[in-house]
Amino acid sequence: MSFHVNEKGFYGNFGGAYIPEMLYPNVEELRQNYLKITADKSFQKEFHELLKDYVGRPTPLYFAERLSKEYNTKIYLKREDLCHTGAHKVNNTIGQILLAKRLGKTRIIAETGAGQHGVATATVCALMGLQCIVYMGEIDIKRQAPNVARMKMLGAEVRPATSGSKTLKDATNEAIRDWINNPIDTYYIIGSVVGPHPYPDMVARFQSVISEEIKAQLLEKEGQENPDYVIACVGGGSNAAGTFYHFLDEKEVNIIAVEAAGKGIDSGESAATSALGKIGIIHGSKTLLMQSPDGQITEPYSISAGLDYPGVGPMHAHLFETKRAEFISITDDEAMNWGIKMSQTEGIIPAIESAHAFAVLDKKKFKTADIVVINLSGRGDKDLNTYIDYFKL
Protein backbone atom coordinates (compact mmCIF):
# COMPACT_ATOMS: atom_id res chain seq x y z
CA MET A 1 0.00 0.00 0.00
CA SER A 2 1.28 3.45 -0.87
CA PHE A 3 1.07 6.38 1.52
CA HIS A 4 2.24 8.82 -1.14
CA VAL A 5 0.14 10.66 -3.70
CA ASN A 6 -0.72 8.91 -6.99
CA GLU A 7 -0.58 10.51 -10.44
CA LYS A 8 -4.22 11.63 -10.17
CA GLY A 9 -3.51 13.49 -6.95
CA PHE A 10 -5.09 10.98 -4.54
CA TYR A 11 -3.90 9.39 -1.32
CA GLY A 12 -6.13 6.31 -1.30
CA ASN A 13 -9.67 7.70 -1.23
CA PHE A 14 -8.61 11.26 -0.47
CA GLY A 15 -7.26 14.22 -2.42
CA GLY A 16 -7.93 15.27 -6.00
CA ALA A 17 -8.72 18.72 -7.35
CA TYR A 18 -12.37 19.73 -6.92
CA ILE A 19 -12.19 23.27 -8.18
CA PRO A 20 -14.32 25.83 -10.03
CA GLU A 21 -13.65 26.00 -13.77
CA MET A 22 -12.19 29.49 -13.38
CA LEU A 23 -9.32 28.05 -11.30
CA TYR A 24 -8.57 25.16 -13.62
CA PRO A 25 -5.86 26.93 -15.69
CA ASN A 26 -3.96 28.07 -12.54
CA VAL A 27 -4.03 24.69 -10.83
CA GLU A 28 -3.28 22.83 -14.07
CA GLU A 29 -0.29 25.09 -14.80
CA LEU A 30 1.04 24.26 -11.35
CA ARG A 31 0.34 20.53 -11.66
CA GLN A 32 2.12 20.27 -14.99
CA ASN A 33 5.19 22.19 -13.84
CA TYR A 34 5.84 21.68 -10.11
CA LEU A 35 7.78 18.41 -10.30
CA LYS A 36 9.82 19.50 -13.31
CA ILE A 37 10.71 22.90 -11.80
CA THR A 38 11.46 21.65 -8.28
CA ALA A 39 13.64 18.81 -9.59
CA ASP A 40 15.77 21.25 -11.59
CA LYS A 41 19.36 21.53 -10.32
CA SER A 42 19.32 25.35 -10.14
CA PHE A 43 16.03 25.26 -8.15
CA GLN A 44 17.42 22.70 -5.68
CA LYS A 45 20.63 24.68 -5.27
CA GLU A 46 18.80 27.94 -4.54
CA PHE A 47 16.26 26.23 -2.26
CA HIS A 48 18.90 24.48 -0.15
CA GLU A 49 21.15 27.53 0.05
CA LEU A 50 18.25 29.62 1.37
CA LEU A 51 17.26 26.89 3.85
CA LYS A 52 20.83 26.85 5.13
CA ASP A 53 21.81 30.53 5.13
CA TYR A 54 18.44 32.26 5.55
CA VAL A 55 16.25 29.84 7.52
CA GLY A 56 19.11 28.42 9.60
CA ARG A 57 18.78 24.73 8.72
CA PRO A 58 19.43 22.05 9.72
CA THR A 59 17.45 22.70 12.89
CA PRO A 60 18.80 20.82 15.93
CA LEU A 61 17.48 17.44 17.06
CA TYR A 62 17.68 18.03 20.79
CA PHE A 63 17.74 15.28 23.42
CA ALA A 64 15.34 16.44 26.15
CA GLU A 65 17.14 15.07 29.17
CA ARG A 66 14.80 16.07 31.98
CA LEU A 67 11.70 15.08 30.05
CA SER A 68 13.28 11.73 29.08
CA LYS A 69 14.11 11.03 32.71
CA GLU A 70 10.59 11.86 33.89
CA TYR A 71 8.92 9.64 31.26
CA ASN A 72 11.61 6.94 31.32
CA THR A 73 12.15 6.92 27.56
CA LYS A 74 14.39 8.72 25.03
CA ILE A 75 12.71 11.92 23.92
CA TYR A 76 14.14 14.04 21.12
CA LEU A 77 12.73 17.40 20.05
CA LYS A 78 13.01 18.50 16.43
CA ARG A 79 13.55 22.21 16.94
CA GLU A 80 11.51 23.80 14.13
CA ASP A 81 10.86 26.65 16.57
CA LEU A 82 14.43 27.77 15.80
CA CYS A 83 13.72 28.40 12.10
CA HIS A 84 13.77 32.03 10.96
CA THR A 85 10.23 33.41 11.61
CA GLY A 86 9.73 30.99 14.53
CA ALA A 87 8.12 27.94 12.92
CA HIS A 88 8.36 25.32 10.19
CA LYS A 89 6.17 27.33 7.81
CA VAL A 90 9.10 29.08 6.12
CA ASN A 91 10.41 25.78 4.65
CA ASN A 92 7.37 25.70 2.41
CA THR A 93 7.09 29.42 1.61
CA ILE A 94 10.69 29.49 0.36
CA GLY A 95 9.98 26.55 -1.93
CA GLN A 96 6.75 28.05 -3.24
CA ILE A 97 8.13 31.58 -3.79
CA LEU A 98 10.95 30.12 -5.93
CA LEU A 99 8.31 28.20 -7.89
CA ALA A 100 6.14 31.32 -8.28
CA LYS A 101 9.10 33.29 -9.63
CA ARG A 102 9.92 30.59 -12.16
CA LEU A 103 6.26 30.66 -13.29
CA GLY A 104 6.55 34.43 -13.81
CA LYS A 105 4.05 35.46 -11.10
CA THR A 106 4.40 38.92 -9.53
CA ARG A 107 1.61 39.03 -6.94
CA ILE A 108 1.45 36.59 -4.01
CA ILE A 109 -1.59 35.78 -1.89
CA ALA A 110 -1.83 33.55 1.18
CA GLU A 111 -4.19 32.55 3.96
CA THR A 112 -3.18 32.30 7.60
CA GLY A 113 -4.68 31.16 10.91
CA ALA A 114 -2.13 31.49 13.68
CA GLY A 115 -0.28 34.01 11.55
CA GLN A 116 2.92 31.96 11.21
CA HIS A 117 2.28 31.11 7.57
CA GLY A 118 1.32 34.74 6.91
CA VAL A 119 4.58 35.92 8.46
CA ALA A 120 6.56 33.31 6.53
CA THR A 121 4.89 34.36 3.25
CA ALA A 122 5.40 38.08 3.95
CA THR A 123 9.04 37.28 4.76
CA VAL A 124 9.81 35.55 1.47
CA CYS A 125 7.88 38.19 -0.52
CA ALA A 126 10.06 40.88 1.10
CA LEU A 127 13.12 38.75 0.30
CA MET A 128 12.12 38.46 -3.36
CA GLY A 129 10.56 41.93 -3.77
CA LEU A 130 7.05 40.67 -4.61
CA GLN A 131 3.64 42.11 -3.66
CA CYS A 132 2.02 40.20 -0.78
CA ILE A 133 -1.61 40.02 0.38
CA VAL A 134 -2.50 37.83 3.36
CA TYR A 135 -6.07 36.84 4.23
CA MET A 136 -6.71 36.26 7.91
CA GLY A 137 -9.88 35.66 9.91
CA GLU A 138 -11.06 38.66 11.90
CA ILE A 139 -10.98 36.61 15.12
CA ASP A 140 -7.42 35.41 14.41
CA ILE A 141 -6.33 38.99 13.70
CA LYS A 142 -7.40 39.86 17.26
CA ARG A 143 -5.82 36.84 18.98
CA GLN A 144 -2.57 36.92 16.98
CA ALA A 145 -1.86 40.66 17.04
CA PRO A 146 1.97 40.35 17.17
CA ASN A 147 1.99 38.30 13.96
CA VAL A 148 -0.28 40.83 12.24
CA ALA A 149 2.18 43.58 13.16
CA ARG A 150 5.08 41.50 11.83
CA MET A 151 3.33 40.95 8.50
CA LYS A 152 2.70 44.67 8.14
CA MET A 153 6.31 45.48 9.02
CA LEU A 154 7.39 43.07 6.30
CA GLY A 155 5.30 45.02 3.78
CA ALA A 156 2.30 42.71 3.45
CA GLU A 157 -1.30 43.85 3.27
CA VAL A 158 -3.44 41.93 5.79
CA ARG A 159 -7.07 41.57 4.68
CA PRO A 160 -9.62 40.42 7.28
CA ALA A 161 -12.06 37.58 6.52
CA THR A 162 -15.34 38.66 8.07
CA SER A 163 -17.63 35.79 7.05
CA GLY A 164 -18.46 32.50 8.77
CA SER A 165 -16.40 31.74 11.87
CA LYS A 166 -13.89 34.48 10.87
CA THR A 167 -11.00 32.04 11.23
CA LEU A 168 -8.70 29.98 8.97
CA LYS A 169 -11.41 28.30 6.87
CA ASP A 170 -12.87 31.69 5.96
CA ALA A 171 -9.47 33.23 5.23
CA THR A 172 -8.88 30.34 2.81
CA ASN A 173 -12.24 30.99 1.11
CA GLU A 174 -11.29 34.66 0.59
CA ALA A 175 -7.86 33.77 -0.81
CA ILE A 176 -9.45 31.35 -3.31
CA ARG A 177 -11.91 34.09 -4.39
CA ASP A 178 -9.00 36.47 -4.93
CA TRP A 179 -7.19 33.87 -7.04
CA ILE A 180 -10.25 33.33 -9.23
CA ASN A 181 -10.42 37.11 -9.83
CA ASN A 182 -6.68 37.49 -10.55
CA PRO A 183 -5.68 34.35 -12.45
CA ILE A 184 -2.84 35.69 -14.60
CA ASP A 185 -0.31 37.45 -12.35
CA THR A 186 -1.19 35.88 -8.98
CA TYR A 187 0.28 32.86 -7.22
CA TYR A 188 -1.47 31.41 -4.16
CA ILE A 189 0.96 30.09 -1.52
CA ILE A 190 -1.11 27.61 0.51
CA GLY A 191 0.31 27.10 3.99
CA SER A 192 -0.65 23.51 4.70
CA VAL A 193 -1.07 20.11 3.06
CA VAL A 194 -4.61 21.07 2.03
CA GLY A 195 -6.25 22.39 -1.12
CA PRO A 196 -6.44 20.93 -4.61
CA HIS A 197 -3.72 18.67 -6.01
CA PRO A 198 -0.77 19.38 -6.37
CA TYR A 199 -0.70 21.50 -3.19
CA PRO A 200 -0.86 18.71 -0.57
CA ASP A 201 2.00 16.84 -2.27
CA MET A 202 4.03 19.97 -3.02
CA VAL A 203 3.82 21.31 0.54
CA ALA A 204 4.67 17.87 1.96
CA ARG A 205 7.73 17.68 -0.30
CA PHE A 206 9.00 21.10 0.80
CA GLN A 207 8.40 20.23 4.46
CA SER A 208 9.99 16.77 4.10
CA VAL A 209 13.34 18.39 4.86
CA ILE A 210 12.25 17.88 8.51
CA SER A 211 12.17 14.07 8.37
CA GLU A 212 15.21 14.01 6.07
CA GLU A 213 17.19 15.81 8.78
CA ILE A 214 15.75 13.65 11.59
CA LYS A 215 17.09 10.53 9.84
CA ALA A 216 20.59 11.96 9.42
CA GLN A 217 20.65 13.37 12.97
CA LEU A 218 19.44 10.15 14.60
CA LEU A 219 22.06 8.19 12.70
CA GLU A 220 24.70 10.45 14.22
CA LYS A 221 23.24 10.40 17.75
CA GLU A 222 21.84 6.88 18.05
CA GLY A 223 23.50 4.94 15.24
CA GLN A 224 20.15 4.34 13.54
CA GLU A 225 18.06 6.41 11.13
CA ASN A 226 14.61 5.43 12.33
CA PRO A 227 12.99 6.33 15.65
CA ASP A 228 10.36 4.11 17.27
CA TYR A 229 7.83 6.95 17.27
CA VAL A 230 7.39 10.25 15.45
CA ILE A 231 4.82 12.63 16.90
CA ALA A 232 3.44 15.89 15.49
CA CYS A 233 0.35 18.06 15.86
CA VAL A 234 -2.13 18.19 12.97
CA GLY A 235 -4.44 21.02 11.93
CA GLY A 236 -4.20 20.98 8.16
CA GLY A 237 -1.01 19.11 8.90
CA SER A 238 2.06 20.52 7.13
CA ASN A 239 4.50 20.14 10.02
CA ALA A 240 3.21 16.59 10.54
CA ALA A 241 3.50 15.75 6.83
CA GLY A 242 7.11 16.94 6.89
CA THR A 243 7.87 15.01 10.08
CA PHE A 244 6.27 11.77 8.82
CA TYR A 245 7.32 11.97 5.15
CA HIS A 246 10.47 9.83 5.08
CA PHE A 247 9.01 7.35 7.58
CA LEU A 248 5.71 6.64 5.79
CA ASP A 249 6.97 3.39 4.26
CA GLU A 250 9.12 2.40 7.26
CA LYS A 251 6.72 0.01 8.97
CA GLU A 252 8.69 -0.15 12.22
CA VAL A 253 8.24 3.59 12.82
CA ASN A 254 5.02 4.35 14.71
CA ILE A 255 3.35 7.57 13.58
CA ILE A 256 1.24 9.60 16.01
CA ALA A 257 -0.83 12.56 14.79
CA VAL A 258 -2.18 14.87 17.49
CA GLU A 259 -5.38 16.82 16.98
CA ALA A 260 -7.07 19.57 18.98
CA ALA A 261 -10.00 18.28 21.03
CA GLY A 262 -10.77 21.86 22.13
CA LYS A 263 -13.14 21.68 25.10
CA GLY A 264 -13.63 17.93 24.55
CA ILE A 265 -14.40 15.78 21.51
CA ASP A 266 -18.14 15.70 22.23
CA SER A 267 -18.41 19.23 23.62
CA GLY A 268 -19.47 20.80 20.33
CA GLU A 269 -16.31 22.93 20.59
CA SER A 270 -13.57 20.82 19.05
CA ALA A 271 -11.32 20.44 16.02
CA ALA A 272 -10.75 16.67 16.30
CA THR A 273 -11.35 15.88 12.64
CA SER A 274 -10.42 12.19 12.79
CA ALA A 275 -12.97 11.56 15.55
CA LEU A 276 -15.71 13.84 14.22
CA GLY A 277 -15.09 14.04 10.48
CA LYS A 278 -16.86 12.37 7.57
CA ILE A 279 -15.75 12.32 3.94
CA GLY A 280 -16.43 15.64 2.27
CA ILE A 281 -14.87 18.28 0.07
CA ILE A 282 -13.22 21.44 1.39
CA HIS A 283 -11.00 23.95 -0.40
CA GLY A 284 -10.64 21.77 -3.47
CA SER A 285 -9.85 18.36 -2.01
CA LYS A 286 -11.76 15.33 -0.79
CA THR A 287 -10.88 14.58 2.79
CA LEU A 288 -12.20 14.06 6.32
CA LEU A 289 -14.27 17.04 7.29
CA MET A 290 -16.35 18.08 10.29
CA GLN A 291 -19.88 18.56 8.96
CA SER A 292 -23.52 18.55 9.94
CA PRO A 293 -25.81 15.62 8.95
CA ASP A 294 -26.86 17.59 5.84
CA GLY A 295 -23.25 18.22 4.80
CA GLN A 296 -22.73 21.78 6.01
CA ILE A 297 -19.22 22.41 7.34
CA THR A 298 -19.38 22.79 11.12
CA GLU A 299 -17.28 25.39 12.92
CA PRO A 300 -14.16 23.96 14.54
CA TYR A 301 -12.81 25.27 17.82
CA SER A 302 -9.38 25.16 19.41
CA ILE A 303 -7.56 27.56 21.73
CA SER A 304 -4.73 27.29 19.19
CA ALA A 305 -5.38 29.26 16.00
CA GLY A 306 -3.21 26.93 13.92
CA LEU A 307 -5.26 23.79 14.73
CA ASP A 308 -8.63 25.50 14.34
CA TYR A 309 -9.52 23.92 10.96
CA PRO A 310 -12.59 21.75 10.20
CA GLY A 311 -10.70 19.34 7.93
CA VAL A 312 -7.35 17.64 7.69
CA GLY A 313 -5.00 17.23 4.72
CA PRO A 314 -5.80 14.25 2.43
CA MET A 315 -2.50 12.56 3.29
CA HIS A 316 -3.51 12.51 6.97
CA ALA A 317 -7.04 11.35 6.16
CA HIS A 318 -5.44 8.40 4.34
CA LEU A 319 -3.04 7.70 7.22
CA PHE A 320 -6.05 7.65 9.56
CA GLU A 321 -8.24 5.45 7.36
CA THR A 322 -5.47 2.90 6.74
CA LYS A 323 -4.48 3.01 10.44
CA ARG A 324 -0.89 3.81 9.39
CA ALA A 325 -1.00 6.64 11.93
CA GLU A 326 -2.57 6.70 15.37
CA PHE A 327 -4.63 9.84 15.98
CA ILE A 328 -4.86 11.23 19.51
CA SER A 329 -7.00 14.21 20.54
CA ILE A 330 -5.76 16.66 23.18
CA THR A 331 -7.91 19.27 24.94
CA ASP A 332 -7.15 22.97 25.38
CA ASP A 333 -6.44 22.43 29.07
CA GLU A 334 -4.02 19.55 28.47
CA ALA A 335 -2.15 21.52 25.81
CA MET A 336 -1.95 24.72 27.84
CA ASN A 337 -0.60 22.87 30.87
CA TRP A 338 2.03 21.30 28.65
CA GLY A 339 2.99 24.77 27.43
CA ILE A 340 3.95 25.65 31.01
CA LYS A 341 5.47 22.22 31.65
CA MET A 342 7.77 22.46 28.59
CA SER A 343 8.76 25.97 29.58
CA GLN A 344 9.71 24.91 33.09
CA THR A 345 11.18 21.46 32.30
CA GLU A 346 13.24 22.25 29.20
CA GLY A 347 13.37 26.05 29.14
CA ILE A 348 11.45 26.18 25.85
CA ILE A 349 8.15 28.04 25.48
CA PRO A 350 6.32 26.13 22.73
CA ALA A 351 3.62 27.33 20.38
CA ILE A 352 0.25 26.11 21.68
CA GLU A 353 -0.04 23.95 18.54
CA SER A 354 3.21 22.15 19.45
CA ALA A 355 2.16 21.85 23.09
CA HIS A 356 -0.64 19.54 21.92
CA ALA A 357 1.98 17.09 20.63
CA PHE A 358 3.78 16.91 23.97
CA ALA A 359 0.57 16.03 25.80
CA VAL A 360 0.77 12.57 24.17
CA LEU A 361 3.45 11.74 26.77
CA ASP A 362 0.64 11.54 29.34
CA LYS A 363 -1.54 9.39 27.07
CA LYS A 364 0.84 6.66 25.94
CA LYS A 365 3.35 4.47 27.71
CA PHE A 366 6.73 4.24 25.97
CA LYS A 367 9.43 1.66 26.62
CA THR A 368 12.73 2.70 28.19
CA ALA A 369 14.68 1.96 25.03
CA ASP A 370 12.18 3.69 22.69
CA ILE A 371 13.39 6.65 20.66
CA VAL A 372 10.55 9.17 20.53
CA VAL A 373 10.88 12.20 18.24
CA ILE A 374 8.42 15.04 18.80
CA ASN A 375 8.25 17.90 16.34
CA LEU A 376 8.41 21.22 18.19
CA SER A 377 6.85 22.99 15.23
CA GLY A 378 6.88 26.57 16.51
CA ARG A 379 7.79 28.84 19.37
CA GLY A 380 5.35 30.38 21.80
CA ASP A 381 6.04 34.10 21.37
CA LYS A 382 2.96 34.48 19.17
CA ASP A 383 0.81 32.86 21.89
CA LEU A 384 1.96 34.90 24.88
CA ASN A 385 -1.34 36.78 25.09
CA THR A 386 -3.26 33.49 25.13
CA TYR A 387 -0.95 32.08 27.79
CA ILE A 388 -1.29 35.32 29.82
CA ASP A 389 -5.11 35.24 29.67
CA TYR A 390 -5.34 31.52 30.39
CA PHE A 391 -2.97 31.38 33.36
CA LYS A 392 -3.57 34.97 34.56
CA LEU A 393 0.20 35.51 34.32
From TrEMBL:
Pathway named in the protein's UniProt entry: Amino-acid biosynthesis; L-tryptophan biosynthesis; L-tryptophan from chorismate: step 5/5
State its cofactor. Answer: pyridoxal 5'-phosphate
One Gene Ontology CC term in the entry: cytoplasm
One molecular function GO term is: tryptophan synthase activity
UniProt keyword list: Amino-acid biosynthesis, Aromatic amino acid biosynthesis, Lyase, Pyridoxal phosphate, Tryptophan biosynthesis
Q: Specify one Pfam family.
A: PALP
What are the residue boundaries of the Tryptophan synthase beta chain-like PALP domain, all occurrences included?
Answer: 56-378
Cross-referenced CDD domains: Trp-synth_B (cd06446)
What reaction(s) does this enzyme catalyze?
A: (1S,2R)-1-C-(indol-3-yl)glycerol 3-phosphate + L-serine = D-glyceraldehyde 3-phosphate + L-tryptophan + H2O
Q: What is its EC number?
A: 4.2.1.20
InterPro entries on file: Trp_synth_b_CS (IPR006653), Trp_synth_beta (IPR006654), Trp_synth_beta/beta-like (IPR023026), TrpB-like_PALP (IPR001926), TrpB-like_PALP_sf (IPR036052)
Q: Which residues carry this modification: N6-(pyridoxal phosphate)lysine?
A: K89
Its function?
The beta subunit is responsible for the synthesis of L-tryptophan from indole and L-serine.
- PANTHER family on file: TRYPTOPHAN SYNTHASE, TRYPTOPHAN SYNTHASE-RELATED
Q: Which family does it belong to?
A: Belongs to the TrpB family.
Under the subunit heading, UniProt states: Tetramer of two alpha and two beta chains.
Q: What is this protein called?
A: Tryptophan synthase beta chain
| Gene responsible for this protein | trpB
